[in-house]
Amino acid sequence: MKKIIFPKPLKKGDKIAVISPAGAVDATQLEKGIEMIKSKGFEPVLGEHLYTRFSNGYNYAGTEKERIKDINWALNDKEIRAVWASRGGYGCQHLIQHLKLKNFTEDPKWYIGYSDNTVIQSYLLKKGFASIHGQTIKTSSFGVTDESYELIFDLLKGKTPKYSLKSHQFNKEGNVEGELVGGNLALIYALLGTKYSFDFKDKILFIEDIGENFYALDRMMMSLELAGVFNKIKGLIVGGMTNMGDEKENKSYEESFDEFAYQLISERISKYKFPTVFAFPNGHIKDNRPLIIGGKIKVKAEAKVKIEF
After folding, report:
1. In angstroms, rounded to a whole number, what is the distance separating the alpha carbons of residues 114 and 132?
2. Mean pLDDT, range 114-133, rounded to an integer
3. CA distances (Å), origin 288, targets 165, 167, 227
4. Could you tell me how far CA 84 lies from the centroid of its own chain?
5. DSSP symbol at 48
6. How far apart are CA 207 and CA 225, in angstroms?
7. How confident is the model at residue 2 (pLDDT cuts 50, 70, 90)?
8. pLDDT of residue 1
9. Residue 289 and residue 309: Cα distance in Å, rounded?
10. 133 contacts 155 by C-beta, under 8 angstroms
11. Which helix (H) or strand (E) holds 296?
12. What angle do CA 285, 290, 296 make, to 5 degrees?
């Protein structure tokens, strides 16, 4: 198995690039997150096109060329010690054919984000580099938990997380160790069959999502099954599933862990024996605790659940 490279811990005064690789953002949405970076003793460096807006069927943070320029700058500038995405949305798939990692491979840095950023994280893992699946800068203005960010800063300083959870009715008990892959289910699904897709063999898969119709959720799970993913993985962790189905019909629409979504997932994987943990606090939810994509993870799914890197 290829050894996955973790970037070096950050020191006080180090520079963190803030870029917008996908959807457009307003400056007011990032003020709190940027001030947080400063309060922790780091220097935020804003991408040239952080606040650019380009409308082409979707409000992107710049043209493809502009967003490619920003991410390649952030990944390769030797003064930048971490890269933090302002948000997700849609657009990261435009970038991955054009990423350059010459300086990055010589001195890797943490890439932080979730949602559409799953695409970038899959790309980096293919190249042998870990990344942080956690809050973006924009979500700091949405009332998310302080712990969501504190744990990211801990990670940047070299401290890996340990989690203890209550058991869930759909959990499948068991103990397993392996490399963590995954992120947003829609993007995992979108990359299937491409050279940028995760390698699922003997991995522990994490999935989360937002705003999907229930049939679409089942379609994505069905595609993973048809692609043989569930025959390859050693374990599954299911995070946030929120704003699912029809808002008028779904009483759990605002819940972080939609029970019917969980039921559909549980039914789709019922014939597989791998340990499964539901209701992990990561995803499009207010309590979004970071995970390390590419990190070696230990999962104990028993009466209580313990997860550690």
Report:
1. 8
2. 98
3. 14, 18, 29
4. 12
5. T
6. 14
7. confident
8. 64
9. 13
10. no
11. strand 296-301
12. 135
- pLDDT reported for residue 140: 83
**111 contacts 121 by C-beta, under 8 angstroms:** yes
- Cα distances (Å, whole numbers) of residue 193 to 153, 224, 303: 35, 10, 37
Residue with tokens 């779904």: 250
Question: CB neighbours of 11 closer than 8 A, spacing ≥ 6?
Answer: 81
- Alpha helix segments (H runs only) across the chain: 27-39, 64-76, 102-106, 118-126, 146-156, 185-191, 214-226, 229-232, 259-268
pLDDT tens for each residue of 48-97: 999 999 999 999 999 999 999 999 999 999 999 999 999 999 999 999 99
- 306-309 long-range Cβ contacts below 8 angstroms, 24+ apart: 306/162, 306/163, 306/164, 306/165, 307/162, 307/163, 307/164, 307/165, 307/237, 307/277, 307/280, 308/160, 308/161, 308/162, 308/163, 309/160, 309/161, 309/162
What is the average pLDDT across 138-143? 83
Environment class of residue 306 by beta-carbon count within 10 Å: exposed (0-12), middle (13-18) or buried (19+)? middle
d(CA 149, CA 151): 5
The answer to whether residue 141 scores a pLDDT higher than 80 is: no
Tally of helices (H runs) and strands (E runs) in the chain: 9, 15
Contact 75, 104 (CB under 8 A): yes
For residue 140, give the nearest of 41, 53, 36 by alpha carbon.
36
